[in-house]
Every structure is written in structure tokens, then in C-alpha cells.
Amino acid sequence: TVKLTIDNKAVEVEKGTTIYKAAKKLGIDIPVLCYMDLHDLGIENKPAGCRICVVEVEGRRNLAPSCSTNCTEGLVVKTHTPRVINARRTVMELILSDHPKDCLICPKSGRCDLQDMAVKLGIRHIPGQEFAEMSTYRKDTSPAIIRDMDKCIMCRRCETMCNDFQTVGALSGVNRGFMSCVAPAFEQDLDKSPCTYCGQCVAVCPTGALTEVDHTPKVIRAIADPKKTVIVQTAPAVRVALGEEFGLKPGTLVTGKMTAALRQLGFDYVFDTDFGADLTIMEEGTEMLTRLGKFLEGDKDVKLPILTSCCPGWVTFFENNYPDMLDVPSTAKSPQQMFGAIAKSYFAEQLGKTREELVVVSVMPCLAKKYECQRDEFKVDGNPDVDFSISTRELAHLIKESNINFAEIAEEDFDRPMGESTGAAVIFGTTGGVIEAAVRTAYELQTGKKLERLDFTELRGLDGIRSATIDFNGLPVNIGIAHGLGNARKLLDSVRAGEVNFHAIEIMACPGGCIGGGGQPLHHGNIAIIKARQEAIYREDAGKPIRKSHENPYIIKLYEEFLGKPMSEKAHHLLHTAYFD
Ligand code: HC0
Ligand code: SF4
């Protein structure tokens, strides 16, 4: 260890600790802008680029960036001398001199780290602004994400998420000096890059440089159109995070409030993606058992492991990186898309309406869902099964805009039939949940026995890669789990190399699964928030009267009245898909 003083307070830290972290130990919060610490995910971003975090170290001529300067024995550090404060302000003025001043209409306004820092440092004037020329870039709009590089401050956080955590490598620093920014190779548009639309870059961007495509105006227009019946579905992870946008603690469950608010917004039917998740389990679980059965009989054409296919970021990553393994993922569509397909067939029939008269809106913790619902294979004669997908943040905004008092609103329940769901569906929202839900159903279908224990705690947690063997009445089923695309790559590479032997694998692109999705209230790299959301998911599951997908009475009815049985021809046509490289 080494001993030092910071602002006249003594502290002892491990060798190699940065001044920033040592100060934190003393309760001193040195301001940072580019720095980001996601230690639970093994990620740290410290390019020491912005120089906002500089401190004065006795005996050194230059100010030191505290995020990347290590403590040494006897160091005397001052974090707020006039020289330091002056330097911070100057740095901030320089950053702002090359930044648009359209805060009033910026999509990040009110949630912008740069704006907050300007307030904190008391910036009132930007010297030379009258004649300063600003660097400008072409705006890039993809199906899910907007890049506005005029607002890029070169913090490199997005690059760290995309390259180090996701190993996608869609973004890197380009150009020099004044014209530098972060962009796909050759400054192409995002939709020409290997981007998966996971949105993790958006989730950490401190400014309005990376934001989601806003679908709320289209949703408002659809609700206002008397010729349209507008149906909304809400993803499992939304209910454990939406409250944060209204000042509630992370992990507060707001399922009933969310449902009531959606009804007040004017949706004709408030349904649940969880219904689609139960349906996914019926199809994917059956597919898993069929493949497993054939494999055990020695059928050489059958590929194992089966991979879950409900995360669109993961599917895109898979299509880009594993074109030799396209027959491995389950062909089951995601819950979002299964829901849309059933809403525009079965439910449209019940209403006596055409699919064109229905508008299906999804509320998702995810930005890739915006892209997924636009994919051509999920359209019938050009009409998409899911018309618009809005993020948890966008829903919060709609609620605020409509003067709904979210804190006070009385809880309501979803409509039926497509609002009924089980605990198995809820846990889809966290890493490990999809495979646990599948096990609950597959076990009972396979063994004909009732599961005594529903909580498969061996599949839970937040470690990046996990594995467990579940005993299916004498048949050991090996399960792998990964969240974050970098972890997925490691796991898949070992499968491809034949080093591991899994029967089924669940993969989710975002940290923690959907609860840490790119469309959620920004977690700013705080893993405690993701943990709290995960706990809430398991609480919701534990409190549900039905916790196995195959026991959902409306799913049973759907098969009886409409689909026949899982993997029937009709089910295949409506609920399964194919993959493309
Ligand atoms: Fe998910 Fe989903 S669980 S991907 O994480 O499978 O986005 O929450 O809606 O579709 O259900 C996201 C969350 C979903 C889907 C479900 C799956
Ligand atoms: Fe990379 Fe994901 Fe951002 Fe695309 S959305 S650039 S894959 S971090």
C-alpha cells in the first residue's frame, strides 16, 4: 500500500490506485467527463482526454489527470486550488467553443453530462465564441440510432463499449485535431458497419452525439387516428426500470402504474410482450427438446447446442460473425415479433379487423428492437407485424408530456387475452432468464413430472459467462449463458472449436440482459442499478400465480383455437424465422 494526502486528508490505498479512486475513498468526488468505470463488467474508459479531472500534485510542474495518475508514497494532492478550478473552466470553455448551443432542442437536454458539468463549473461565457468556427459533420440516421458528431466531445466511451465490451468494433476515433470524432470505418453510415444496434454506445454517451431514433410522434399520430386500433405491448425489463425516470428507486416495480399510464395515453389495448415470451417458450422449448431427442438418437444432421434467438443485437452479431453456424440458433422469433404476428392474425380475427387497421407498438428496453421490427422477414405484403418500437425512455417522455402523475396513478392490470403472462416470461428480462423459463417448461414436457423446485438459482447471477448442468430426470442437460457480446464471442468461439459441450445456450447482448438495454433509463455504468433491476425481475416472478409458460391459460387457448400445437405448420409459418449472412 501507499500513503498520501488529498485535500489535507490522509488516505492509504493499494499500489496502482489512481488519485481519482483514492479521492473517492475519502468521499471527494473529483469531476470527470470522459472517464467511466464499469469495474463489475471489467471495463474502464480512461483516455485522459478531457482533462476536467485535473488536480495539483505538490512538487510537479503540470496538473495531473486524476483518472489516470497513480498514487505514490507521500503524494500531496489538492483537488480544488484556484489553479485547478481555473484549468477546469478553461478546458470546459474550449470544449464548449466547438459544441452546438442548441440545448433547448437537444434530445439529451436535461440528461447531458456536458450540460451538467457546465452548470457545476459555473460557465457563463465562452471566450471568442463570436468568431469561433465549429467543426461540422454529416448526420447519420440508422433504423435505431442517430449519430450527430457535431456534439461528439471525443470522450471515447462509446468506442470502449463497442470495442472492449461488445467486441463489435463498429466505432473508432477518426481524423485529427479539430475534425476528430468517433465513427465507423471510412466514416460510413452506421447501417453499413457491423453495428448490432445494441445501443450500449448510446447508453454511455455523455452528450447528444448518440441518441435513439424517436418513434413517439408516429405513435401519437396513430393513437389520434380514429381508423386505427392501436395495441401496445411492454417488454419484461421495462417494468423494473421505468420508475427511475420518475425519481423512483432502481428496482421499483411499476407494472400496474405503467399499464394504467398506457391506458391513459389512449392505447386501445394494453397487452404484454410477456405473453409473447410464454409463446416463445412453447416453440423454442419444443424445438430444443426435438433437437435434443434426435441428437441423442444419433441423428448426425442435428446441430447442438441450440442458441436462443430473441435478442436482436445478438442475432445481428451472430449473422455477421458466425455465418458458418446459421443453422444453430433456434428458429423461434423473438417475443416482440411473435406477439406482433399473433396480434395481426389471431387477435385481428377476433376483432373482425384487417391487419392494416391495427397498429402494434412495442415498449422495449432496447434500441435494436427498432431495427428488428423493420426487418423485411417480419412483414406481410409490406405491413410490419410490429409497426413501431419505443424505448423505456421514450415511454417515460410520452407519460410526462401527457401530464400523467405517474407517482400517484392507481395500478391497473393488462387487458386479455394477450396481457396474461407467467413468471417464466418476466424473467426473460434478465440474463439467464430465458433459459430458466425454457427449462421450467422443457423439464415437465420431457419428463412428464411436475417440477418441485422452480428457482434455478444455478442459472442466475451477473457473471459474464456462466454454465450449469440441469438433471432432466437422469438426463444431464448442459447449459451455457453469456451476456455482453464480448462474452458471447468467447463462448461461441469455444463452441466452434469443439472445446465445450453444451446442449443449450442463452445469449443477451447487453450487460445484465435486457434490464441493462440501450433503451433503458441511462445507467451511467452503475452496475448497482442493473443489480437492483435484476432483483425486481425475480421478485415479480416469485409473486406471479402462474410461473410456467405452458400453464398460461390464454396460451393453451391460443393453441386450441388457432395454432394447433407447438411447431405445427401454422405455428411454423407465423412464429419462426430464418437467419441471413
Ligand atoms: Fe427483452 Fe425479449 S426479454 S429481448 O431482453 O426474448 O428488449 O425486456 O422484450 O422480444 O420477452 C428486450 C426485455 C424483450 C423480446 C421478451 C426476449
Ligand atoms: Fe457498437 Fe452497439 Fe453502438 Fe452499434 S449500437 S456502435 S454495436 S455499441
From TrEMBL:
Keywords: 2Fe-2S, 4Fe-4S, Iron, Iron-sulfur, Metal-binding, Oxidoreductase, Repeat
UniProt protein name: NAD(P)-dependent iron-only hydrogenase catalytic subunit
Keyword Oxidoreductase: yes
CDD domains cross-referenced by the UniProt entry: fer2
Organism: Williamwhitmania taraxaci
Ranges for domain 4Fe-4S His(Cys)3-ligated-type: 83-122
Matching NCBIfam families: FeFe_hydrog_A, FeFe_hydrog_A6
Domain 2Fe-2S ferredoxin-type, first and last residues per copy: 1-83
Xref: InterPro entries: 2Fe-2S_ferredoxin-like_sf (IPR036010), 2Fe-2S_ferredoxin-type (IPR001041), 4Fe4S_Fe-S-bd (IPR017896), 4Fe4S_Fe_S_CS (IPR017900), Cytosolic_Fe-S_CAF (IPR050340), Fe_hydrogenase (IPR009016), Fe_hydrogenase_lsu_C (IPR004108), Fe_hydrogenase_ssu (IPR003149)
Signal peptide annotation: none
All residue ranges annotated as the 4Fe-4S ferredoxin-type domain in the record: 143-173, 186-215
Family annotation (PANTHER family): NITRATE, FORMATE, IRON DEHYDROGENASE
GO molecular function: 2 iron, 2 sulfur cluster binding; 4 iron, 4 sulfur cluster binding; ferredoxin hydrogenase activity; iron ion binding
